[in-house]
Amino acid sequence: MLVMLGGAVVGAAAALLLAPCTGKEMRKHVCHMMKKKGIPCCKEELEQFVEDA
């Protein structure tokens, strides 16, 4: 049981250290890519999507 808990802690720490960018930056990037593909995107819609998920 302690090994599993230790693995979860190590995994969470690695995820935080290796994350490419913050959530705000990632949403901005996603919105930019959607607009680039011709899909309309606004900040409010993306924020609502994240809250609903």
Main features:
mainly alpha; about 0% strand; elongated
Shape: elongated
Number of helices: 3
Q: Which range best describes the helical content: under 10%, 10-25%, 25-40%, 40-55%, 55-70% or over 70%?
A: over 70%
Any low-confidence stretches, pLDDT <50, length ≥5? Answer: none
Q: Estimate what percentage of residues fall within beta strands.
A: under 5%
Helix-strand topology string:
HHH
Whole-number mean pLDDT: 79
Summing up helix and strand content along with how strands pair, one would put the structural category as mainly alpha
> How many beta-strand runs?
0
C-alpha end-to-end distance: 30 Å
Gyration radius, to the nearest Å? 16 Å
Question: Could you walk me through the main structural features you see in this protein, from its secondary elements to its overall organization?
Answer:
The protein is an all-alpha fold. The chain has a domain at 21-53. It contains three helices and no strands. The protein has helices spanning 2-18, 23-36, 43-52. The chain is elongated. The relative contact order is 0.10. The mean pLDDT is 79.
